[in-house]
Amino acid sequence: MHLWLRITPVLVFLPTTLLAGGIPKPVTFTFTNDVGFGNEVCVLGPHPALGGNDPLKAIKLTWSTGNVWRGQVALPDGETLAYKFIRRSFVTSNWPTSTATDLTPTNTIQVPDHPAPPWKGKTIFLHAPWSNANLFWRNLTAGETNWTTTPMQWVGAGRTGVAGERLFRIDAISTPGTELEFVFNNGAGTWTNAPAPPSGTATSNWPTSTATDLTPTNTIQVPDHPAPVS
To answer: What does the pLDDT look like over 11-54, one tens digit per residue?
Structure first.
């Protein structure tokens, strides 16, 4: 049985300058151009997240086959920002006075608005050999003591080679930034956790499982830490 809590990350360039006035949204910039060996393509604009019109602070894009340059930048949602693509030399002799050549005129981009609250919460997946699955959970951040049972949706087959397994999913559980305590059950008395379901009884030998010694008791000498050098 396999379970995981998935939070989908987006890897973006987040400048040290704080993005005031909006929630950062990943914006992809793409430009195709053969700028020659020793040069790089960057995106530059007046906003601090785009370098503040300083070519030395412009955001370098990543080269890929076909001379396609691409990168993501975190920009404040809902704003219209100016930008252009520039060619910059990264030859060390040009540091820190690197010259830049405009590759495009100045354009504008509209950063999408962030969805209005309430935002969707967590997405949880479960692999299990069950016909039905439930999430049994409570919100620790809110100090909840009562448990909630929420049915999960069967969304597909399980992992390759695991006979009888199914994939279950549940979305929008709780709210962002909250800590959950949860287990799974099939609605017929079978649980995924040990030693026991909340407010339930131990399963099989949990938590009183017996153990057999494989070796007699031995000792180990932990090495001394080197003495400080004066």
So the answer is: 344 444 444 457 788 899 999 999 998 889 999 999 999 999 99
Give pTM, 2 decimals.
0.46
Asked if 64 and 71 count as a contact pair (C-beta separation under 8 A), the reply is no
Angle at 126 between CA 142 and CA 183, to 5 degrees: 40
Closest CA to 42 of 52, 28, 57: 57
Residue ranges per structural domain of the chain:
9-110, 122-185
Q: What is the CATH number of domain 9-110?
A: 2.60.40.10
In this prediction, residue 207 carries a pLDDT of: 43
